[in-house]
Each structure stands twice: as C-alpha cells, then as structure tokens.
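User: Please predict the structure of the protein below. I'd like the answer in structure-token form so I can feed it into my own downstream comparison script.

Assistant: Understood. Taking the following sequence of 347 residues as input:
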Amino acid sequence: MKLEITVQQIAALLQGEVVGGDPNAKISAIAKIQEGDANAISFLANMKYEDYLYSTKVSAVIVSKGFEPKKEVPCAMIVVEDAYAGFTDLLTEYQRMLSLAKVGIEQPAFIDDSVEMDKATAYVGAFTYISKGAKIGKNVKIHPQVFIGEGVEIGDNCVIYAGVKICHGTKLGNNCTLQAGAVVGSDGFGFAPQKDGTYKSIPQIGNVILEDNVDIGANTVVDRATMGSTVLKSGVKLDNLIQIAHNVVIGSNTVIASQTGVSGSSEVGANCMIGGQVGVSGHIQVADRTMVAAQSGLAQTVKNPGTRIMGSPAISQMDHLKAFAVYRKLPELQRIVRDLEKKVLSL
C-alpha cells in the first residue's frame, strides 16, 4: 500500500508548515534522506546527516523549527516542533493505514460460535484459533497462526502478529501490539520444594492484564500470576526476548530492552528505562524513573525515584564508575604492593 498523499496534507497532519518546494507534490514512499527518490519523504533530526539535505532526491524532508539550512534545499521542507517526533507520527499514521487495509477472515481459521468480534473491521489470518468466550474489539488485526485462549479480552485497534499465543483469561486494552511469537499468559514458574528433593508444581490460576498502548516484542513471554494478575500498565514497551514472571507489575511508560528478565512478584515503577540483559530479582520494588544500565544485576529495592544504577550487583552509576576506575588500576596496585613487600622483607 502506498501513501498517495500530498506534501501539504502531511504538513497538516503533523501541524507543520511547508517551506519551499512543491506543496502539491505527491508522496508515495518513506525513505532515508540519503537513499530516497522522487515522491518519497524523509526527515532530518541528527545534524550529522545535514549534508544529505542539499543533495537529496526526496520530494520533502521533515525538519525541526529553528533549523536554518546552510545551502539551497532542492525539496520542500515540512517544519515542525520536533522532526523526530513528527516523523514518528507519520510512521504511525502509515502503519494505521496499512492496518485498516486488512479486513476479513481467511480460511482455514477456527472461531468459536461464542466469540464476540466486530467482523466488519476485523482481520483474522489463516490457521488462527480463537477459543470460546473470547471478546475482541473493533479494528483488531490477528495475523496467521495465532492462538487466543478461552475468555481472552482484546480491546480496540490491537495488532496481533503471526504465531502469538494469548492464553486463557488474558486481558488486553486498546491499541496494543504483540509481535511475532510472543506468549502472554503462560504458566508462571511456580514449584514447591519437597522433603525428598523433588519439586511440586504450583497451579497458576491468575491472569495477565495489559493496559492500553502496550507493545510486546517478538518471542517475549509474560507469565500469568499464581493468584491475581501480572500487570503491564499503560504505555509499557517491551523489546524482543524478554521474560516477565508471575505477579510482576510494570509501571506505565516503562521501557525494557532485549534479554532482560524480571523475577516473580517484583514491581517496577513508571517511566523506568531498563537496558538489555538486566536481571531483576524477585519480590523487590523499583522506584519511578529508575534507569538501569545494560547487563546489570538488580537484587535490592530501589527506593529513590530517578536513580541511575549499573553493575552486578547493581549500585549507583557514580559509585560504579568510581569503583571501575580503581578496578582498572588493580594490576598496577598489585605491582606496587609486591614491591613494598619485597622492601619490607629486605629490612
């Protein structure tokens, strides 16, 4: 599907202003500023790429207010408050248009007779299985080979990509996106140790709740609660290959990068940023706006909002940098200690 929209219409969509070029030029593609051809649109947010602006072949470039070109620009500029944010809005609209284009139920697909779904706006891909009692909102796009369990509730405008598994009792809000292979609502890791050294499985009878505007990356797993709910609050964004354990609560607008694991019953606050390969221990709390560096091991509660931590075990960023400065000097310090030992022994 192509955009087929004019430069002026894009400017109106982004609440921007067209400067130079042809405001009536048709835009049918989105491209990098250094690669695009005529009828494409791009953006300039990083001044490292400014030189490409003066030789680009695209029909329009989104720029930030206050930008002053050093040379003549061969295309139209759409001036907005923030070029990167404006370009993101354009991509979002483009994705929405692509999503709206998909409607209908492909065969073979199984949809239980009890399922509530707005078939006029829904898309269901082939080999999808939707279990009894499921409730699916308007304009939901379910791609091929998806499994939706009993009693699952999905809000409006959600996109479920190929191979996703949404297990029984899970609830999704509006505007959620689950990337290919994600599993939401699988059993939590609950086993009780026995006197003979074996482990007995603990039934996981809770569920998972995703609030509005939650994004789940490919092959990420969110486990159901033992009792109650595992909750991802509004605006949470999870990367690929993440493990969220049973009864975890992730605060609104928190982002977590790939290969991170959050252990059971931990609570992560709102607007946190957690890097890749971070390990979060169970039953701890992480304050709002905490920033955790990649490969950190978080084993204790973080009480103060806005804390920056790194390392394993994780400590404050400043303390870690100070400690690392000493660590780098250990070979030299060892040599000094040995020299001192020799001098003491020679006395």
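That's the full token string. The chain has a mean pLDDT of 94.
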